[in-house]
Amino acid sequence: MVLAERSNDVRNGKRSRGPSPNGHGSPDSSSEDENAEKIRVGRDYQAVCPELEPVEQRRPELISDRALLVWSPTTDISDIKLDEYITTAKEKYGYNGEQALGMLFWHKHDLSRASMDLANFTPFPDEWTVEDKVLFEQAFQFHGKSFHRIRQMLPDKSIASLVKYYYSWKKTRARTSLMDVAGEGRNATSSGTGKSGAGSEPGGSDKESDNDEKVQQNKQQLSAMKRKVGDAGVEDLRPGEPPAKINSRWTNEELLMAVTAVRKYGKDFQAIAETLGTKTEAHVRSFFISYRRRYNLDAVVREHEADRGNAHHIQAGTTSTDASENATDSTTTNNGTASPQTTSKDEKPEVDSEGVSLGAPAEQGGPPTTPPKHKPAK
């Protein structure tokens, strides 16, 4: 491998920014180009590893910055009991997995003492709020693993914090957003003949082509089975969707979905409850009141109303034009005169005490349209 050596100025121990090859670069240019995804090769980008010291020369007690062991596995506790302990620490006391294991290791793997000591401490809160998680997910959809660009949307987070959260989020994240997953789970009405290449990537391997052949064979078998059973029988044999269980406890994913749903539906708590699937309208209303200040839900509602107002403004302009045209047509038809009132055949006209219909013309005994002229007395 041949590496091109570049002559770079070194000032104060740091590499200075040189001009771009086309001559239009400037020292104040954005760092996005420098931090873009690229492979960096050379001695300047390699880590410097110190020499390994022999065991006899090591003096760990003299090192000021020493690592602290917070967990070590043991065979004295079964996996079932360990999972029960971690679940209790998470749901009842708000610990995460690492904090719960650290408490157990502090008590030398004594489950009873560690369980009793959980209530005596307040776990360190998660530095990532629900809004931060929503912003990270949106930024990751736009920029991928370019953490320098993601940091522009989360300026209060360091690159190390973003990378650390990415790997913890990567384990539990789905391929689509949480809102899409909730919507697809309730509205899944697709038949067995789906698109075989929906999730495939271009330039697949031989294994992917074999999978496509298997999918095609499954389609043919399904078509043959449908012809035997008939269209009416397929719907009867299809298993129904199990109803979602209503739970008053809010998980982190449900809080994330709720904040996103407020951005989409505003204060329509019924729509938000239907989106979540596991909460009622009363649960959503209680969530809005309890977390109003913590997640700044009023600002989220204002953003929803602003977007909705812009949509109504565009629609109102079209509606007002149609209304003016209808008003012009009605004015032309009436020609400035009031429409006469007609009486249905079934309706009986009102009569006065002398039996004359009210509103009848003068020829039929009704009141005269003009007052009679009195002759002067002689």
TrEMBL record:
Organism, per UniProt?
Diatraea saccharalis
Composition bias of kind Polar residues appears in 316-343
Region span, Disordered:
1-43, 180-246, 308-378
Keyword list (alphabetical) reads: Coiled coil, Nucleus, Repressor, Transcription, Transcription regulation
Q: What GO MF terms are annotated?
A: transcription corepressor activity
- This protein's source sits in the domain of life called Eukaryota
SANT domain sequence ranges: 123-174, 245-296
Q: What is this protein called?
A: REST corepressor
PANTHER family the record matches: REST COREPRESSOR (PTHR16089:SF28), REST COREPRESSOR COREST PROTEIN-RELATED (PTHR16089)
